[in-house]
Amino acid sequence: MTNSFKYAFDGIDNPQIQIRLNKKDTNTYTLIYSDNGKGLPVEFDIDRTKSLGLKLIHTLTKQLNGKLEIQNDKGAIFTIDFTLPQLDIEIRNEKKTA
Question: Among 4, 44, 87, 94, which residue's Cβ finds the most Cβ atoms within 10 Å?
Answer without folding.
Answer: 4
